Amino acid sequence: QVQLVESGGGLVQAGGSLRLSCAASGRMFSSYVMGWFRLAPGKERELVAAISWSGDSTYYADSVKGRFTISRDNAKNTGDLQMNSLKAEDTAVYYCAAGLNTRVTGHGGGSVNEYEYWGQGTQVTVSS
Predict the structure, then answer these.
(1) Which of these, 124, 109, 101, 128, lies nearest to 46 by C-alpha position?
(2) What is the pLDDT of residues 67-103, one digit of tens each?
C-alpha cells in the first residue's frame, strides 16, 4: 500500500513557475514508477510526466517538454514536478500517481489504468 499527498499548487501568472511535491508513505515506494497527471475541465486525465523507479528514465508530454522537470528522491520518499514558463492551458488539478508495473520510456509513461495509487490532487491555476 502506498499513500500519496501532493502539495505546492496555487495561482501563478503566465510565465511563472511552481514546484509540486509528492510525499509518499508505505512500503517500497522506491520500486514504483511515479507519474504526474493533470485533469482540466472538459478534458480527459493526461499524463504530464513520469519517472522510473531508479530515475534513469523519464517521459514528458509534448505539451510540457522543455518546461517541466520531474524528479524523485527515493531516500526521502518524495517526488517533484518543477513547472516553468507556465501557460494558461496548464491550468488543471495535478495528481501524483504510483504504478508498480508501469514502464517509462522516452515515448510513453503508462496509461491511467497502469497506476495503482493516487494522491488527492492539487490545483494549479495560471492566469493570463
Answers:
(1) 109
(2) 999 999 999 999 999 999 999 999 999 999 999 989 9
Alpha-carbon distances of 70 from 1, 33, 42, 43, 95, rounded to whole Å: 23, 12, 25, 22, 13
Q: Quote the CA–CA distance of 41 and 63 in Å, as a whole number.
A: 17
Bridge partners of residue 36, in order along the sequence: 49, 96
Contact 9, 18 (CB under 8 A): yes
* Rounded (10°) CA dihedral 113, 115, 120, 122: -100
Name the residue with cell 519517472: 51
Taking a C-beta distance cutoff of 8 angstroms, is the pair 58, 70 a contact?
Answer: yes
Q: Residue 106 — pLDDT band, cuts 50, 70, 90?
A: confident
Alpha carbon distance 70, 58 (integer Å): 8
| Length in residues, the chain | 128
d(CA 70, CA 81): 5
46-74 pLDDT, tens digit each? 999 999 999 999 999 999 999 999 999 99
